[in-house]
Amino acid sequence: MSSLAERMVPDQLLFYCRPGFEADVAAEVAANVERLGWQGRAEFIDQSGFVNLVVGDERPANELHRQLAFERLIFARQSLVALPSLQLKRDDRLSPILKQVMESGWSFDSIWHETPDTNEGKALAGLIKALTRPLESALRKRGALRRKAGGRRLHLFWMGGDLVQLGMSFPGNRSELPGGIRRLRFPAAAPSRSTLKLEEAWHEFIPREEWDVRLSEGMQAADLGAAPGGWTWQLVARGMHVYAIDNGPMKGDLMATGMVEHLREDGFVWEPPYRLDWLVCDIVDKPARVTAMVQRWLTRSWCREAVFNLKLPMRRRWEEVERCLAQLEDAVADAGVRATLRCRHLYHDREEVTVHVRLRD
């Protein structure tokens, strides 16, 4: 390994995202970096699927990475401490990678090869497969890849066949999914593909070991804007009784289950007859209007947990989300209601983000 004096100190953070949302990641990260008292410059190319933050002061990027909690970020799929990207020669791609790893002094117990979520990235699968074993062998011989290294993971982010960036991730402050993407199988019986949004939200916000308690049979739920029934299907599949609120028709065999009461009413004005376990909502409307509706539910404690989507404007999406979440948090606090709130741009989301709120008794 290189001596301490010779080591390359990382001065960047690397974030993955859905292509087209680079500016939103940059705006969100910049706001958080400023709040934490750091300086940095976000660099990105539209539709590339990633953003680099070059740290602007003399402190190591590792310290900023520890302060910038991944679970609080909305638009980033992954967060890494990163080194400068490497331009590779096609006749010897491994040597520059090995050299940079050794100069960094990094050690790790696993290696992930990843690409942007683009067609160009997917085309690199064959090259990555050919390089994986030789690289692992070489790093193992040099002592960088070892059996126990505190769960640290080396990420090779391939932006092209001759361009790669090395990053490091740490347990508890990263996504544990390759590329930060949770791929789910579409259930054939579900009425629409939107069903995957709610399923992914449960995976994201509720620990799997708590599903049998917090998503249990016999619970009562409301689905506002339910038609054609994609989210209602998920609730019924968990054994919940559902008020499906929508003027549109419900599809599939949901009504035959006896678990659904379909009310052709306006989800923005409907009120539950008693406190429910769950509120879910995927209404297509302005985010401020949906936020105001959910705010009414939460401040009056009409549900114990809620999952809802905010449809995003074409521009300044981060600013709109930040404004809606701040409004909701302030209203809940002013009402004396204790709650935890998280928000994430999920893989199965498109032009929306998913918010989860859990009220604390």
UniProtKB/TrEMBL annotation:
Signal peptide: none annotated. GO terms for biological process: methylation. Keywords: Cytoplasm, Methyltransferase, rRNA processing, S-adenosyl-L-methionine, Transferase. Its EC number is 2.1.1.186. It is found in: Cytoplasm. Residues 12-80 form the RlmM ferredoxin-like domain. GO terms for molecular function: methyltransferase activity. Residues 192-251 form the Ribosomal RNA methyltransferase FtsJ domain. Catalyzes the 2'-O-methylation at nucleotide C2498 in 23S rRNA. HAMAP family: 23SrRNA_methyltr_M. Monomer. This is Ribosomal RNA large subunit methyltransferase M.
